[in-house]
Specification:
By secondary structure, this protein is of the alpha+beta class. Helix content is 16%, strand content 43%. The chain contains 2 helices and 6 strands. The protein has a 6-stranded antiparallel beta sheet with strand order 1-6-2-3-4-5. The longest helix is centred in the middle third of the chain and has 9 residues. The radius of gyration is 12 Å and the shape is globular. The model has no long low-confidence stretch (mean pLDDT 90).
């Protein structure tokens, strides 16, 4: 059976919710490389710390806080754990 939430973009992730990173959607190579350097690896768990305020979303990934703009967040596919 399919466990966990439905696939969505990080932009739709709720605050203080644990998510699993699945894939990138329609993203430029240089932007993808930047996100991979920030440790966005398929299967990795992350948590939304702060939702969209002033156009940014803050997530906790591998113990580090990362602020992403809405454009990047909209290209990161996740599901609730």
């Amino acid at each position: 059976s399919f466990s966990g939430g439905l696939m969505m973009t990080l932009l739709n992730g709720k605050e203080n919710t644990l998510l699993r990173f699945l894939a990138f959607d329609n993203i430029a190579i240089d932007e993808r490389k930047k996100l991979v350097d920030l440790r966005f690896v398929p299967g990795e768990e992350l948590k939304v710390l702060r939702g969209m305020k002033s156009g940014f979303i803050t997530v906790l990934l591998k113990g580090g806080k990362i602020a992403l703009d809405n454009s990047s967040a909209s290209k990161i596919l996740v599901k609730e754990v």
